[in-house]
Amino acid sequence: MKVEAVEHGDRKVYSVASFNKGVASWISRLPTVWIEGEVTELRRHERWASVFFTLKDPENGACLPVSMPRGRFDALRLNLDDSERVHVFGRPELYEARGEFRLRALSVERFGIGAHLAAIERLKAKLAGEGLFAEERKRQLPRLPRRIGLVTGNDAAAKRDVLATIGARFPPARVLVAETYVQGPKAAPAIIDALRRLCEEPEIDVLVLARGGGSFEDLLPFSDERLVRAVASCPVPIVLAVGHEQDTPLCDLAADVRASTPTAAGKLVVPDLHELIERLGRSRSALQRSVRRSLERERQRLVLARTRLDRAPALMLERKRASLAHAHGRLRALSPRSTLARGYAIVRSTEGIVMSPPTAGAHVDVELADGAFGATVD
Known about the structure:
Shape: elongated
CATH class of the largest domain: Alpha Beta
Strand content: 25-35%
Number of strands: 16
Largest sheet: 5 strands, mixed, barrel
Distance between the termini: 177 Å
Oligomer: single chain
CATH superfamily of the largest domain: Hypothetical protein af1403, domain 2
Helix content: 25-40%
CATH topology of the largest domain: Rossmann fold
Strand order of the largest sheet: 3-4-5-7-6
Structural class: alpha/beta
Radius of gyration: 54 Å
Order of helices and strands: EEHEEEHEEHEHEHEHEHEHHHEEEE
């Protein structure tokens, strides 16, 4: 369509289509540009050829509609969410049919916090795949550490909170403090060096890495890959207390125990002395009761054994007497004398005891219970 005006008296009048086409033609001559803003109203549908979203200026709320071919947007694999800050490279254009001004995007890149978040998510997936965050590699904290190492900032509130909590809960505790950078580009290597030096000290049984709250950028060193690997490979158990409870730097995932605050970290590494003394008192009382019960059981057992020992000789004599009486009765019942006493007699000949009638005139000897006599068989 040619952009032409219609003469109406002394004025030139353009149709809406002509006007939009003319403006669109002029805008199309503008160069491609980079524009920064926050993503809002992201709309994507499988049946749409384009993806639509709005760039919002966080300072004054100014908005710019953006469209981008869906294939190109999907190829970037950004997984954008609302409120993420991005840089968009594109060319301004006017959609003639509706007279809508927008930016035709050619590329999109995360910027600022969004870029850092994306990098942290990629690093998180990588380290998780290596097993650095696995629960089975987490170690138990010692019940009564001989010495505690504390890595924290110089004159930091986190240091005061940890030391005050440890001192209040367990005054005999010994704490070795290593002060170092906890934010900025020097923080990660400085913390790694502090952890190494503390681990080389004798009798260090547990480490605490503490830092108070701060902005997202302040806590970035605690998601540094070098520091995360150092925490994961620390030769002694390590407690991490960095930021507020909602903050989760990658070191939190690699540490053996995560504390929500520096004060909570102090409570985790030492027991409460008063509670420990009370438990020891209860254990002592329980042991005393157990010993008394054991002694009473043994005393009763000894009394019973003494009674049985006292009765044992009499019982044994009684059993022996009964056994002898029984044997005597059996012997008497089996004795030939007892048989003779019942009126029987023993008849003997020269050949021995007579078992069948002898011949007539034979001489036999007859034994009775009260004597004996000779006889001739008739």
